[in-house]
Structure formats: C-alpha cells, structure tokens
Amino acid sequence: MTDELANRIVQGLKDAGINFVTYLPETRLSQILPLIRDDPEMELIAAASEQEAVTIAAGATLGGKQAAVYMENTGIYVSSYSLLAVGKQLGVPILLVIGFLGGIADQRNSFLYATIGNHTIPILQGLGIEHMLLEDGDRLEIKIKDAVRGMNALRAPFALLFAGEFSL
Amino acid sequence: MIRYQCLELLAANITDQLLVTSQSGQRIEWSHLSKHEGNLLVGMMGCAIGVGMGLALALPHRKVIVLDSDGSVLLSLFNLATLGNLQPKNLMVYVFDNGVYSGSRISYATATAGNTDLEAMAKGAGIKSARTIRDIEDFKKHGIDALAESELAFFVCKVEESLMHREIPRPNTDLAENKYTFVRYLERTEKKTIPFIGRG
After folding, report:
1. Do B47 and A45 touch (CB under 8 A)?
2. What is the band of B199 on the pLDDT scale with cuts at 50, 70, 90?
3. C-alpha to C-alpha distance for A56 and A64, rounded to whole angstroms
4. Residue B105's domain is classified under what CATH number?
5. Which residues contact A152 (CB under 8 A, 6 or more apart)?
6. Is the entire prediction scored with pTM above 0.95?
7. How far is CA B108 from the centre of its chain?
8. What is the value of ipTM here, to two decimals?
9. A92 to chain B nearest CA, in Å?
10. Domain count, chain B
11. The CATH classification of domain A3-167, taken from the options 3.90.1010.10, 2.40.50.140, 3.40.50.20, 3.40.50.970
C-alpha cells in the first residue's frame, strides 16, 4: 500500500469520527498503525486476541468513544463469538477495518491465504454483519463515512474489507 | 465464603461506579441485589473483562467494576496479558471462583478446582496486585476497601458453589433495554452525548 493510501485511511477514519482503535497487527494495512499511534486525537490499544479487541472496542463505544478494530480477516473467525455476543446481541456499533487476505482481489494471494479469504464474506453474512469491499482509493473517505454512519444507525458492527491496491 | 454475601457487601458500597456483569449465577444475584442504572449486563461468558477495560479506558475518571466467574475468565485468558500491560487504574475485577461449571447443572469441575491458580496466572501476566480472597472478613478488608483505591484490582474470590441464583427471580430486563438504561445514565452523569445514539 502506498503511504498516500495509508494516510487517507487514517484521515478518513478521523474525519468519520473514529477516535479509539484496538488492534492485532497484520501485513496488508500495517502502515496505518504508526499514523494512529502518533495522532494525539486517536487512542490505540493493543489486544492479545481479536475476540478481546472487539470487546474492548465495544466497552469504549458504550463509554462515549467511536471505536474501530483493525485486524486481519482471520480475526473475524477468532472474534465471531464476541461480534455476536456483544456487537450484535447487545447492539454495539464497531467499525471493523480488515486486511482482506486471500480474496480474489488480494494482490498477494497464495495457497496460504485463499481458503481463509474464500470463507470470509460468507462468515460475515452468516453473522449478519454488513460489509463493504474496498479495492482502490476511489471515494475512500466517503465510503469510510458511510460505514460509520451505517454502523451507528444499525447499532451493529460494520466491516470494511481492504484488498486490491491496499494489498500491494 | 458464599458469593451472595460478597455481592451484598459490594452492593451496599455502590454509588456512581459502573458495573459490568458476565453471564453466570452472579448476574442473576447481582440483578436481584442492585437496581443501579450503571449496571451493564453482558449476556455471554468471556466478554465482561474486555467490555470493562474499554469502559475504563474511555472514562478514566470513572471507577469500573467487573463481576466475573472462573469459567468465564478461563474462556478469555488473553485478557490477563492485556490487563497486565495496560494497568487501568480505575478498573476492578472480581472473579467469583467456585471451581465448577455451576450453570451446566451437573457442576463438573473447572480447571481452578485442579491445578490452575488464577491469581498466579494474573501475576504472571503482569497484574501484580492480583490477590486471592478466601473468607468474608478478607473480602471486607481487601475487596471492599480497594473501592477507595486508584489502582488495578484483580480479586480471585474463592466461593462455595451456591444455588442461590436458582431460588431468586431471574431478571427480566432485556439486554438492549439494559444497554440503553446504562448509556442514558452515563449521558446524564457524564453530561455528554454518547455519539452512536445519534438522532432519530
């Protein structure tokens, strides 16, 4: 991913009101982490599991933050329990910023990732979590704002899946 | 030591703290003892400590209390490592450890009935203040007195298995209803709007 795209993701998150991010790092979008860490208007919290990252973000949302979880798509499998238990059952909006490994548009796809990628969208659909696939920077900031508005309206997690140019 | 006795003592000391309860018998007992609007009922196991951490980080001036169980903590051991590193000074965790999966109605043992020591695990994860409480006098001395302190507290409260939660009325508050009561309480006491609520 170019530095420009990384900067636009983080600025887009800020402009959409996101001010609290929990995470487990991955490979595709990791350039956003130092940008978030160094931004005094954003709080960055390392979690030990995506399941935990979702619950911490949920607590922060209930406490008045606008929270996102940054993770690899494998984290959807790990966190599906807390996405349902807290995100859906309790009805807490959380933006899921996901490096989408193994999808058709993943420019670094291989046998290592393809199975994980192949099941990601069906898993999100099974959980009843809305998602948007982003493959380039076209209208990036607007799409992030749409996702945040959508999650707040739905009172539920919303997934942004980053692939294509974001996976280079 | 009986969990209900501990909760009675705790309930008498609640003012404006925020409480997050995990799914177990203590959720039913706490709902019976406390009608505090700052109670947040999380309806599944293994999520309460994470939610409590998020609240504590979002509201660092506010005391947050998590009521949890041994079975629930064993489901989410990663919380210990994160707590041990973040050390939120406004968070207290009470783990009511009865050594059994009591809700299963067959009361099979949890790992803490065997060789597993949650206090030692918490200390190993960096929660140096972790303490095991074994009787009600110690609960008063340490568990209640710590409410006035400003440091991360992690109490493993060794309790007998009690079926009290099956004898008292179960709460009929829907989880979403409880969430909105909690959020409105926060808005009123924090004098701010919780952003996700938005406008209709």
Report:
1. no
2. confident
3. 13
4. 3.40.50.970
5. A93, B195, B196, B198
6. yes
7. 22
8. 0.96
9. 8
10. 1
11. 3.40.50.970
